[in-house]
Structures are given as C-alpha cells and as structure tokens.
UniProtKB/TrEMBL annotation:
Record organism: Rhizophagus irregularis
Name by which UniProt lists this protein: Uncharacterized protein
Top-level taxon: Eukaryota
Amino acid sequence: MKERKYDLYGDVKCRMCLEKNEDDDHIIYCQQLRDKWLTVANNTRYECEQILKDLLSQENYLQLNQEDIQQLMSWNRNFFVYITGLNQELPIPFIHLILRNFFPKEKYRKLKSIVKSEKAILTITTLFIEIFINEFYRIIWQIRCNLVTEWERTRGIKKKNPKKKILAHQRIAYERTLTQQIEGDTYDFKGRKILKHNEQWSISLEKTRQLYI
C-alpha cells in the first residue's frame, strides 16, 4: 500500500516484526512468521494425505500397486523435506512458486513417475496448491491484514482514503503512439510491431511453461 499511497503509509514496517519493510519476499522470510509457515506446510501435508487416501479408495479413479502407493505417500510426506529436520530455516521450499499457483517442476516430474494418469496428476497438484494457499490465507494473511487494519485505524486511515481519486494535476501525462496497419498487424513508425493482448499473453504463457513445467 505504501508504494501507491506513500503520503498515507510513509515508511511503515512489517506489522509482524516491526523491523523490515514489507514486500512479497519479506512475508516469506519474516522470522516472526517462521512457526506459522511451518504450520502451513505441515497442515498442507496432512490434508493432502487425507485426500490421497480418499482418491486411492476410488479404484476407478486411481489404481496403483502397493509399491506405488508407498512412493506416493512418501512423495507427500517429503514435499517440504528441508523443514522436517533440525534445521528449520525460512523460506520453506517452493513458497514463491506455490503462492503464484505454480507447481514445482521437480515435484511434478516425481509425481508423474508414480501416478501415470494425467487426470489424477492434475487433480492432486491442483488440490495441493489450493490447500497450501488456503492455509496461508487462514494462518498468515488474515492475521497480517487484521494487524494492518488496526494500524490504519489508529492512524485515522479509512477505506476510502487509499481509493481516493488522483487530482488532475497529479496525473501522469502519456503521449499517444502513432501507429500504422500493415497486412493486418499494427506497427509504430519505427517499424516495431505492437502486440495485441492475446499475443502478449501467449508469449508470457509459453515462457512460463518453459520455466516451470
């Protein structure tokens, strides 16, 4: 919020540790959230284990031999393997990816080697991400938002303040780029093609697939 409304929020620090500036990385590394992140990870593993057992009970949906079942359960138990030992340091593995709805490719490949059904793999990975994000929201994000709301109340910041319209003289003036149409495509006068939103999305999606799948 302070990046958009510095006049209201100034140099306010993380409401958990009261020391560091809050950003996307800090909420993952904040030492005051260490135990809560461990709880998120452990709850995710436990809930996912229950779901896997339910899926395995549906013989028409997921058919595995005993060895594969053991590997699948081990895959789930060891998903956050780096926090199960004595060295329980932040960040928990894969937080950055999962919070952005990306599933770690190494974990995906391991799961694929155990579960051959594409439908089952998609179900498991989707539910895993959903459980993790729900636990994060319940255990960390809601508490963080409540602390921020209380801080805003003590500073007299109301909901309408952050949404206040920018005055005309404060707005950034943008120059219009002159374009031309060539064979159905749009170019600027320097010959650079201007991509449509669906073309930009396709390029971004393809790059994401190359990185995470």
